Amino acid sequence: MRLFAWLMVCNISMRTALTMFLIPAYALVAELTSEYDERTRLLTGFHVLYAVFGNGMSVLMYAVWLVPTEGISDGIMNVEGYQSAGLVGTVIIVTSVLVFAFGLRRFIPRLKQYEFDKPPSPSQFFRHVADVFRNASARIVVASGVLYYAGVGTYVVLWAYIYSYFWEFTSEQISIIVMPMALAALFLPPAMARWAAGREKKTVAMFGLLGAMTVNMLPISLRLLGFFPENGSDALFYTMMVAGFFETILFLVFDICWRSMIADLTERTELETGRRNEGVISSAITFTTKCADGLGTLIGGILLSLIAFPTETAIGEVSPDIIFDLGLIYGPVVFLIWMGVIVALSRYRISRSRHEEHVQRLSEG
Q1: Distance between CA atoms of 294 and 305, rounded to whole angstroms?
Q2: Integer Cα distance of 217 and 150 in angstroms
Q3: Which 3-state string (H, E, C) describes 133-187?
Q4: Which residues contact residue 38 at a Cβ distance below 8 angstroms, ignoring those fewer than 6 apart?
Q5: Is 308 helix (H, G, I), strand (E, B) or coil?
């Protein structure tokens, strides 16, 4: 119980600190520009750096830290590796936040200026949140985000099990497979420039998620049906490398467009309430997605318990029936969650032309 309490306090503290950074970071997009495509370009740059560093850490995890030792045959069980990764990750996070914050100072004169007699009270803040959610598109964006991040949380929990136990890749192989994922984001700016030009963000987001779902689910589905390369084969290794590359790009396409759609809520809510509410929108979205991410983690843990997945068992020693069940629960559950995102997004109503109309009306008066 002491370990659980310590972990809970650390996790809550970390997520709170991260939220204090992310809320103003994402709110700034709507302040820096009101142009429909420029918001997408800004978020593309942000997510390129985020993905390169995030997936780069995964490469280092399996190539440097989670490696077998004399007493540990499976690198996943290397406790000291997690400790070293945590220390390096801390330095990277602190450095990147400081660079981001000080680098944006030169944009302060360009931001819209507001005067407040005093900060809003808690009751006023929740009234502002309620005002935002009176808009149907805002409710749709939140619903799709909750479902998406619930799926992501489940995916993240099960990812290590799928690659280590289902595909039986070694730590060295996983470190190589993750390399294309880290590099995939570098190809994102030209891809987004081509795919998003002249198109609705909703359409591009749905295309990205559908594509990512297909790439993510197809290999597991084919394996369960007996139509996929065997574990340990070169064909499986290179196939999953290619799949990881395209999966990463397509997930990022969805995330960028979805967050850009959130920024476009700003002008709509300003017309309806007289306030831009960038921070309110960002805080509400961040809170709900954090809750959804935690829900996904819970779902992943429950699924592992339902199939009685063993703990501290080496790769290759888990029962084939349990491995089959692992693939069986992963595919349908995550697929159904993300299909809910597609259904929700299809009802989003702020189009390119409607956004331009909102900006024009605000400029006139």
Answers
A1: 17
A2: 16
A3: HCCHHHHHHHHHHHHHHHHHHHHHHHHHHHHHHHCCCCHHHHHHHHHHHHHHHHH
A4: none
A5: coil
Q: Count of CB atoms within 10 A of residue 79's CB?
A: 8
Domains along the chain?
2-102+124-364 (1.20.1250)
Grouping H, G, I as helix, E, B as strand and the rest as coil, residue 311 is coil
| Per-residue model confidence as pLDDT tens digits over 6-56 | 999 998 898 888 888 888 888 888 888 889 999 999 899 888 888 888 878
Long-range CB contacts for residues 93-101, cutoff 8 Å, separation at least 24: 96/49, 96/53, 97/21, 100/25
Nearest CA to 156 among 313, 63, 294, 253? 294
Q: Which one-letter amino acid corresponds to residue 203?
A: T
Tokens standing for 246? 């395209």
Candidates 315, 290, 298, 297; CA nearest to 145 is 290
* CB contact at 8 A, 66 and 164: no
pTM score of the predicted model:
0.84
Q: Give the CA distances from residue 240 to residues 25, 209, 251, in Å, rounded to whole numbers and listed in that order.
A: 34, 18, 16
CA distances from 183 to 47, 90, 194, 326 (A): 12, 22, 19, 29
Tokens for 240, please give them.
């999953």
d(CA 1, CA 7): 10
Is the distance from CB of 345 to CB of 140 less than 8 angstroms? yes
